[in-house]
Amino acid sequence: MKFDEFNLDEKLLEALSYMGFENASPIQEQAIPQILAGRDLIACAQTGTGKTAAFILPVLNKLAQQKSKGINTLVLCPTRELAIQIEQQIQGFAYFTGASSIAIYGGDDGSSWNEQKASLSEGIDIVVATPGKLIAHINMGYVNFKDIQHLILDEADRMLDMGFINDILKIISTMPKEKQSLFFSATMQPKIREFSNKILRDPFQISISISKPAAGVIQEAYLTYDNQKTRLIDALIHGKDQFESIIVFSSTKIKVNDIVNGLKRKGYSVHGISSDLEQKERENVLAQFRAKRVRILVATDVLSRGIDIKDINLVINYDVPNEAQDYVHRVGRTARASTTGVAITLINPDDMYKFHRIEQLIESIIPKLPLPADLGEGPEWDTRPKKKEFNGGGGKKPFRRR
User: Fold this and answer.
1) How far apart (Å, rounded) are the C-alpha atoms in residues 150 and 144?
2) Alpha-carbon distances of 320 from 118, 316, 359, rounded to whole Å
3) N or C terminus: fewer CB in 10 A for the chain?
């Protein structure tokens, strides 16, 4: 379905054409007509399916036809990176409509506080915010949501996992009851449905590609010991010019520096990014990566959702994520917008059972490729859960719990 079939405002269609958007994705095709019709919505869709356009285009269409009085739309999301990305996309879509927007998030140096205060108290068309930072403004008493017409929760499952439920409920309590509410979530856990039942009115329900990587992702895995991993990455990318932009995901911040240092010793252009960096530092690293001045970005899962970096050719899971959905989000950084990409996971003996569970949940067996001969032998595939060892004390030998 093409965007001009939605009967969107001409100014929006002009922006979409300018940005190269022509055909709607499945989530956009199903969501946009319902949102334009005023329905509440609960949608389950994985990363990279075009969720932002699905909820922002109908809002901008209404704003293009009738200017709002105060704050018209609030988008809540779990991380500052996602807030920045959504607001940047809004700026692109709204270029010819004149709609205004602002991103409100924590982690900055405080210099933007007055600008945020003015927008929240005087009114701006669209606010994109993380719950914690927005609550800080609400507690100051000047936030004015009396004219809100649209409430959008993006990555609702992650916000609940991060403990934002009370903040979200407090924010909603400051709004009028008569508004359109839209929930977008990567998973549809029972707690999400229970939470949505408190807020949504007879919602239209959409489910798109739950817990499965996009079709364009070529998924592969290697069974390897930890001391082989950096050398394996070198073997996989050395001389491979087709891999211009590479993300290496680590499950812990501690490993990021070790991976960066190991790859630098191999002569690669590489930077690390995690929640330990200040916001300006993170934005600078991302800007360099987007501009292809840095070939490899080593990141924690803070980047697995919500960061829109185009043309990533290769994703490497340095270690196996704890949850299947995190795996989907990591590999979803490549093969976006109907392109293709490669996702490779490095599996040590302790992670084999965890990766086996991921394969069961995504209903796909990932090929386990042989290591390069010069790396030596890797571990054997063994999906049995590892038994924990306990020290009995008093100099006794460790024993295994049966």
Assistant:
1) 14
2) 44, 10, 12
3) C
Q: How many domains does the chain have?
A: 2
Q: Where are the alpha helices (DSSP H) in 77-144?
A: 80-93, 113-122, 131-138
For the segment 64-84, the average pLDDT, to the nearest whole number, is 89
Residues 202 and 318 in one domain: no
Q: How many CA atoms lie less than 13 Å away from 267 in the CB half-sphere?
A: 5
The answer on 231 and 335 residing in a single domain is yes
Range of the domain at 308: 217-375
Helix (H, G, I), strand (E, B) or coil at 272: strand
Residue 334: CB atoms within 10 A of its CB come to: 26
Residue 160 maps to which CATH number?
3.40.50.300
Claim to verify: residue 29 and residue 128 sit in the same structural domain: yes
pLDDT of residue 391 exceeding 50: no
Cβ atoms 299, 250 nearer than 8 A: yes
Q: What does the buried/exposed string (b/e) look like for 358-381 if buried means 16 or more CB atoms within 10 Å of the residue's CB?
A: bbebbeeebeeeebeeebeebeee
What are the tens digits of pLDDT across the range 317-357? 999 987 776 788 788 778 665 567 899 999 999 899 889 88
Contacts of 310 (CB under 8 A, 6+ apart): 290, 336, 337
285 plus 371 within the same structural domain: yes
* pLDDT, average across residues 246-269: 92
The angle at the Cα of 322, spanning 184 to 168, to the nearest 5 degrees, equals 35
Together in a domain, 47 and 185: yes
